[in-house]
Amino acid sequence: MSRRRLLGTAGAAAAVTAGAAACGEPPKPQDVRRGTVVGQTTDVPVGGGAVFSNSKLVVTQPEEGDYRAFSAACTHGGCTVQEVTEVIGCLCHGSQFDLVTGEAVVGPATEPLEPFTVTVDGTDIILD
After folding, report:
1. Band (79; pLDDT cuts 50, 70, 90)
2. How many domains does the chain have?
3. Which of 21, 30, 100, 113 has its CA 20 to 30 A from that of 57?
4. CATH number of the domain where residue 100 is located
5. What does the radius of gyration of the chain's CA atoms come to, in whole angstroms?
């Protein structure tokens, strides 16, 4: 390979790398849903919660009127948590998270679920 061609290839690779860095990471599903309705309060039982797959959120209601939202992506392997009973459960590897704090209570996950803030307007749950 000629030196000119080698330098041209290196320049093209640098341009692609710089372009990718300028674009950054794609937005999280939650970021594009901010300010929109992500679920209904009627779907979130007191002492439990619900997974809203299109917004990638799990919303809990530990006590009447107290709504908490967390990323539905398990911090162990990235699976979407599938169930909410007394805990938020990921069936992929058995991790469980606290309804109030999102903290990991049963591993293999050790990191908490990412928290989000929601407001309630009537029966609408809106991601802040």
Report:
1. confident
2. 1
3. 21
4. 2.102.10.10
5. 20
> What does the CA dihedral 122, 113, 106, 110 come to, rounded to 10 degrees?
-170
The owner of tokens 């209570």 is 105
pTM for this predicted structure: 0.77
C-beta atoms surrounding 95 within 10 Å: 25
Rounded to whole angstroms, how far apart are CA atoms 38 and 42?
12
Q: Return the closest-CA partner of residue 114 out of 7, 46, 28, 6.
A: 28
Place of tokens 């749950």: 125
Dump pLDDT digits (tens) for 26-50.
Answer: 777 677 788 889 999 999 999 999 9
Please name the amino acid found at residue 11. Answer: G
Q: Amino acid identity, residue 26?
A: P
5 found inside a domain: no
Return d(Cα 61, Cα 69) in angstroms, integer: 9
